[in-house]
Structure formats: C-alpha cells, structure tokens
Amino acid sequence: MMARQICRSLWLSWRPHRLISKSAMDVRRLSMQPPTMHLRPRVFPTSGFEIIDPCQKVEEERLPFYKQDDYYPMRMGEVIKDRYQVVAKLGYGTGSTVWLSRDLSEQKYWVLKVHIHTLKENQEIKVYRHIAGASLGDHPGREYVRRFEDSFKLKGPCGEHDVLVMVPLGMSLRTLQEMQKDAVFQQDLVLRAMDQVLLGLEYLHEVDAIHTDLHADNLLVAITDDSVFAMVEENEVDTPSARKQAGDVTIYVSQYMLGGAGPLTISDLGQARIGRQHRGNAMPIPYRAPEVILNMPWGAAVDAWSVGLLAWDLLEKEGLFRIYDHDCQEENDAHHLAAMTAFLGPPPPEFLRSSAEAKKYWNDEEQWHGPVPLPSKPRLESLATRLAGKNRDMFLDFLQCVLRWRPKERLTCLQAYFHPWLRGEGS
Ligand SMILES: Nc1ncnc2c1ncn2[C@@H]1O[C@H](COP(=O)(O)OP(=O)(O)OP(=O)(O)O)[C@@H](O)[C@H]1O
Known about the structure:
By secondary structure, the protein is α+β, with helices and mostly antiparallel strands. It has helices at about 1-15, 25-30, 125-135, 175-180, 185-205, 225-240, 290-295, 300-315, 330-345, 350-355, 390-400, 415, and strands at about 80, 85-95, 95-105, 110-115, 150-155, 160-165, 170, 210, 220, 245, 250, 265, 275. Adenosine-5'-triphosphate binds near residues 95, 96 and 113.
C-alpha cells in the first residue's frame, strides 16, 4: 500500500535512468512460452553501449576496500549453472554484486547475489538457514524479511563465490526518499513503512536473530508486477547498459526496477547475528547504539535503537547522529556519545556502572568529562520537527521510547508497533 502510493506519485515525476523502450507486446511474447520448455539463452549485444572512461571508477569500484579479484567477473548474458541467464545488473555492495537472471527451465526471474570469494564464513547464508529452520512460518512479520530460494557455489578465476538465489525486489527506500520533495517522506508513508519494518524485526527477534544493520538502503520495496522483469531484460537488449572495461573484467552500471507496490522487505542479513546476547563492534557508525560504543554486551534492543533513527531519517532532513571523525574511532566515539548526552541527557548511573569504558567519558558523579566538549544541542523533546501539534508530540514520544540509554528500557519492536504514533492516534 505504502509503496503503491509512493510509486504512483513518483511515476509522474521520475523516469528510470534507462528508459524501457520495447513494446509490451514483445514482452508478452517472451512470457507466453510454454512453461516446460528449456529456453535457449539469448544473445546479448556486444556493441551499442556507452563505454565509460577506464580512469573513472564505476559502482563497486568506488567502495573503499574494493579489490577487483574478490568479485566474480560476471558478463551480461552469461548462463550460470546451465540454468540462470544473467540479464541485468541490479546492484552491488561491499560483499557482492547482484544480478537479475532468467531461469531457463522454469520461466521465472530470480536475483543472483554473487558474493566475493574471500568471505571466510558466509554469515548471510548462515542466518538465512537459521531463520528457515525456525518454525514460525505464519508470523505476520515473515513477509517483510528477505528470503532465499537456493544457494550454490560458483567457481571464479580467483576462488569460489557463494551465490544466493532470491526473489527480485525493487528499489530501496533510500532511493525512493531521494526522489521525494526535499528528500523526506510524508508522515503517513513513514507510519506505514515503520509498521512493516517493526513487524519484520519482531519476526527476526522471535527467531533469535538481530539485524544490526537497519537503514533505508537495506529496505527494498517488493515488486508486484512481474512483467517488469521481462521489460528490464528487453531494455538491456535494446539499450545495453553503460560499462567499463577494467582489464579482463567488465564493470556494468546497474538498472533500477520500478514495478508496482509490494511490501517493504528487510534485506541484507550479512551483518545479522544469531542468539540473544553479543559483544563487540556492530552496526554502521551513525546508527550505533550506546551499549555497542561502550563495549557492553548487546542484544535485540540495538535494532530498536536503529528504528528510532530510521523514523527520524525518513521524516527529517538532517540525521540525529553522523560520522564525526573519519580518521580516529576514539574521537568519533567521544563526539557520538557527547551528542547522545546532549539529546537524551546523561545516562543513568547503573548504565554507567556496567561499562568500564564509560569512565573515559563520565566521572564518578556522572558528569561528562570526555575528550570533546558537550555540544549545545537542544534535548530531543524540544527538537523542531517537520510535524506539528499532536503528531509532533507523539513522534517525539516514540523516539524517547526507543532512543533510551538502557537497552532494557527501550520498547521491543512489538511494543513499538503498538505505540500511539503508529496506531494513528496523532491526527
Ligand atoms: N532481491 C533483490 N532484488 C533486487 N535488487 C536487490 C536484491 N537484493 C539486493 N539488491 C540490490 O543490490 C544491492 C546490494 O545488495 P546487498 O545490500 O544485499 O549487498 P551487500 O554486498 O551485502 O551490501 P553491503 O555493502 O551492505 O554489505 C542492494 O542495495 C540492492 O540495490
């Protein structure tokens, strides 16, 4: 519902960066093949595309720790396992490239997430298997968490790559947000998004999995109109995507897929953890919960912290926290904790007593004595937001219920789902 509304409003104002030009008839012809036939792979163009200057970095090449040899050198049109023909590139990440493929035996489209070969242990596959083994198939949050259909190993020139076969999904909530006026969503869309995210997280927590990496890039809108996949394929044949030749390897520019309006899907479980209690570093820096920064044991409540920051980011132009120091982790932590103290007030004494690390930042009287000054930020409850009246009060109350120093005091995802702001008691 949410995505349908977003897409409808976007449809007029936004065009994919590569237009789909083949007629719907051609697409229909493709999908009307008899279902049992093993299709012959089609030939993809070897010319007619923009060739990007080899000096320019493209997509995964721009990532800080990119090493070409780690990634599988996929070629457009390649047939994997004698079954999946790669028909478009959909994305990339620090650990993978992601491709739309046509199943030559089942007349379906699948996404292949092809991991780098250097992962010692594939956490994402481990987590998916754990979730699949949990008998909670009828949980209402299950449909909001990405699943995989199959996995296999793919031999590349430098090593073996894990491949996840998944249902194709649409663009990320971040991409949709960037297309909105002023790059923020209207409140009713945020409420719907938060509902789905909270149910999805509640499902993960029920099966003892913690996501730890929740933000708008990892929330993908499911596609309801399957004809989009064939159109994306046709588009790749008609107007092949721009690419760059880097030695023997071709780096392609990804396509977006816009196709109707399915639910939001929590994706990328590569950082997820199994079990209730953990220690050590986790979470992207600006989203890091205080117990993680202070090296305390942490659990599912870190996701509730991220939920608060996600809600803020979807509604407001500037994030609450950011990366303060790119070069020095300690300086960054000090700034981050100082900003939290300004927004939330000082942490409760029992929270400080449970972390040896806390002594670096607060003295025995619980006064801040960290290496950086406390910023003069207003407290969370007095922040100006784009909302007004009762909506604003409820939104700030919601934030105060999830952005709490003590993890035990944060609402669980299920409790947060029932917060009055999300249950429409605002306006
Ligand atoms: N099922 C899917 N359908 C369509 N596109 C997808 C799908 N899964 C992933 N993508 C695209 O590929 C991109 C990378 O996927 P993902 O975040 O899972 O990779 P990653 O390598 O684990 O990334 P990270 O850098 O966060 O570790 C996503 O941002 C999205 O654009």
